[in-house]
Amino acid sequence: MKPLRTLKYKNGDEQPAIGLGTWKSGKGEVTKAVEIALNNGYRHIDCAATYGNENEVGEAFEKVFGEGEINREEVWITSKLWNDSHKKEDVIPALKKTLKDLKLDYLDLYLIHWPVAFKKGVGFPESDDEYYSLEEVPIIETWEAMVEAKKQGLVKHIGVSNFSIKKLKDLMSKTNEKPEALQVELHPYLHQNELLEFCSKNGINVTAYSPLGSGDRADAMKAKDEPSLLENPTIVKIAKKHGASAGQVLINWAVQRGTAVIPKSTNKGRIIENLASSGYQLDKEDLAEIDKLDEHFRYVTGEFFVTDGNSYSNIYDE
Ligand code: NDP
Asked: Does the keyword section mention NADP (predicted)?
């Protein structure tokens, strides 16, 4: 099998560029999906406590690593701290719960999922009093506990997700232990070039989420009477030209930009197809056409964090 492209970390660790996403992968199907992925060459799995399926993802790890053909050390596993565990005393217990569910001793990467703090036990807030304000639980408090988790060897690398340049700069001004990774939404309708450039200059590895337009959220495009990413005529045309599928073009585009990318699928054919995305080069002409598709459109709007007048209503600082 062709070696997978990787993103390099300062200590020499490598994160495979294509990984498997697990958001909305049902409990009854995710174990199989992760097993299929690992047995067909994936070496990067993206998880999160809030996806509600880490226990089932862990069953796949237990089985595959138990069989002995693939070692734990060969696979890059990411998970994310949920917003209700941002207080310093809650971070490591939340991480330990994730490790227990995933049946692992350590994570390769742990991310602060969102720059938003909820009160303990809140999944998605319905009113302002279910949030902590940024003064009550500043992000640096959460970050220092992430740094401690790394010191304890529970995670190899730490980073953040859904942070703007402004929020990255603010965090970086308050710590010597800079985020090593950022996970954000990126696809041809949302290029975020400035953010990518900032990360590149600051040695932050970027992972692209929702690279295919996030499944049912593709309806958001249909509501605007525009094609979903997978049906976009430019993407379809480029796919035909290279004998690839539309999904493969979207994934390859992300890899060529130097990001990692984590398409979600629970379908065996599509899981295999997605990993085989980067066998050819998108040429200058393809890239110029894809450049024209950028319209700053988000599938994951963050609107679920907006209740009446809380301090998180402008989550992306836009
Ligand atoms: P994706 O953009 O990966 O799209 C997933 C959808 O595309 C599913 O409906 C899947 O269906 C379908 N699909 C998969 N492969 C193909 C293909 N080759 N051709 C056509 N359709 C395909 O959506 P996500 O929003 O899930 O993003 C990917 C991952 O990113 C998440 O699973 C999660 O791990 C992470 N993420 C992180 C966030 C964060 O806040 N940090 C937010 C959102 C996502 P099927 O399963 O039937 O194949």
From this structure: yes
- Using CB distances shorter than 6 Å, the residues near ligand 1 are 21-24, 46, 113, 161-162, 183, 209-215, 230, 245, 247, 262-267, 270, 273-274, 300
Residue 317 lies in a domain: no
User: What's the predicted TM-score (pTM) here?
Assistant: 0.97
Whether 249 maps to a domain, the answer reads: yes
- The domain tally of the chain equals 1
Ligand 1 centroid, distance to 99 Cα (angstroms):
23
Q: Is 296 part of any known ligand binding site?
A: no
pLDDT value of position 181? 98
Residue 304's pLDDT band (boundaries 50, 70, 90)?
confident
Residue at 121 is within a domain: yes
Does the residue 118 lie in any domain? yes
Question: Which residues form the domain of 58?
Answer: 13-305
Mutational test site, ligand 1, from 109, 186, 214, 219, max ligand atoms within 8 Å of CB? 214
Residues taking part in catalysis: 51
How confident is the model at residue 44, as a pLDDT?
98
Task: Please report how the helices 284-291 and 246-256 are oriented relative to each other, as an axis angle in degrees rounded to 10.
Answer: 100
Residue type, 30: V
pLDDT value of position 125: 87
Q: What spacing in Å lies between the alpha carbon of 250 and ligand 1's midpoint? A: 12
CATH number, domain of 86, equals: 3.20.20.100
The answer, yes or no, to whether residue 306 has pLDDT greater than 80, is no
DSSP of 172-217: HTT-SS---EEEEE-BTTB--HHHHHHHHHTT-EEEEESTT--GGG
Average pLDDT over residues 284-295: 97
Beta pairing, strands 6-8 & 14-16: antiparallel
Alpha helices in 43-85 (DSSP H): 54-67
Residue nearest to atom 27 of ligand 1 (CA): 210
Bridge partner list, 160: 112, 182
